[in-house]
Write a structure and sequence with these properties.
Elements lengths: L2 E2 L2 H10 L8 H12 L2 E3 L11 E7 L5 E6 L9 H4 E2 L4 H12 L4 E4 L1 H36 L3 E2 L3
Helix pairs in contact: 1-5, 4-5
Length: 154
């Protein structure tokens, strides 16, 4: 006889498949690497040259610091209007990195900037995971209903 399908059953089945409902940022980054091939480097002192997104700061001639979030490794190719910031925009930098790594790209963030944006990044990454988990939840629900071992309450 079929059993009533509950959220708890679906969550348990997702756990068995290795999908946590509320994982930490490191687990999510591993998931992104496995599923999309995206990588984030926040430890190296400089980008290695293959990254699709780099975020760093640079001093101007009059000793002000500007922040750069770009896809280019060549200073000549910077789009000043869209790549250069007069302040550290953690929200924008976070979105740039998430977009890059979830598209299979590699990102490097200067460790000095990372320390200021890590909290915002982890928060947004966990929000991103919530959307992914909701999709996985719905897929698992449909999969379990298709087995005819469970039924849904109307």
């Amino acid at each position: 006889m079929a059993e009533l399908l509950t959220d708890e059953i679906i969550i348990e089945k997702l756990n068995e498949d290795g999908f946590m409902q509320e994982p930490d940022a490191n687990w999510i980054l591993e998931y992104i690497n496995d599923e999309y091939g995206g990588e984030l480097d926040t430890d190296s002192s400089w980008a290695k040259g293959h990254e699709d997104r780099i975020i760093y700061y640079q001093s101007t001639a009059d000793m002000y610091e500007v922040y750069i979030s770009t896809e280019s490794h060549d200073h000549k190719d910077l789009y000043f209007e869209q790549d250069v910031y007069y302040y550290m925009d953690a929200n924008q930098f976070t979105q740039d990195v998430i977009d890059s790594i979830t598209s299979g790209g590699s990102s490097w963030v200067d460790p000095n900037i990372w320390s200021d944006m890590e909290y915002d990044f982890n928060y947004e990454l966990e929000a991103w995971w919530t959307d992914i988990y909701d999709e996985l939840f719905e897929q698992k629900k449909e999969e379990l209903l298709d087995t005819k071992e469970y039924y849904e309450e109307n």
